[in-house]
Design brief:
Layout: H1 2-6, E1 12-14, H2 24-51, H3 58-87, E2 91-92, H4 94-127, H5 132-135, H6 138-164, E3 173-174, H7 181-185, H8 193-226, H9 231-259, H10 268-292, H11 295-322
Helix pairs in contact: 2-3, 2-10, 3-4, 3-6, 3-10, 4-6, 4-8, 4-9, 8-9, 9-10
Amino acid sequence: MKQGNESSITDFILLGLFSDSRHPGLLVTIILFVLGVAITGNSVLALLVWHDAHLHTPMYFLLSQLSLMDLTLISTTVPKMVTDFFSGQSFISHIGCGAQLFLYLMLGVAECVLLTLMAFDRYLAICYPLRYPVIMTPRVCLQMAIGSWVGGMLISLMHTVYAMNFSTCDSREVHHFFCEVMALLKLSCEDTSTYEKVVLASGIVFLLIPFGLILTSYILIFLTVLHMNAPEGRNKALATCSSHLSVVSLYFGPAMIIYTTPGSSLPADVDQCLFVFDVIITPMLNPLIYSLRNKEVLEALRNILWRKLIIKLKEEDMPICNH
């Protein structure tokens, strides 16, 4: 009752993950831990790429953009969800809901485009190493990054404006932990079947087609790698590509099930679990996959930590020497 009295008639109520949970305290603790690991991992990875000169390459530049997207994605949904849990008030304003929907869709589309461009980058680097520096110039890398962000913004803006303009019935309860487009459509009194087909078509364009391009790129890469004579070069190429393929599988797998499946065919709990994996778990795993399986990233991290340790030891020894 308190929640209903304090919210306006235009507010939505996010039922979230905790309403049906038997152990909400444990669940929110796990989510807070995942949030902390995701923020730390993505922030450290992005800062390493910007700080270490050895990582100033097209591949790592694009990887830093992926880290920024993951950082923003998990920050769009989880802090609101955790705040609602501790405050006991799970309503969100109409504007706040639209902003959350816009950011989620923008980052989702941007990551699809960026992961496709990262696969293209690896294809050029391994299959055409001599032409690679000529094609992948800093300007081209910047254009790729800007194209990913701007493309995501434009597509998201169109979907957000359209979805938020549907009239809703008496119920304002969103059966989700954030304002997700298909969950919002279920509240509408209007016929949304045409727009649901548009969402399905968007899923095909921004999920299935990029996924097909990525798979094609890696098939060509593996065929090239098999003909490499140097074992060291072959192993390095396979390690880098396997990391990228792992991230692609984590991101595209749940997203394709969600957005290329007819709206009502998935059970609510399955739908929620897929979104948890896509929006919360994947942003945490991405930096771990790229850092733990990448010698250059680990070496850059060791160098920075070693330099910090030396500086600290020198500062501690300074007063003794002066004395």
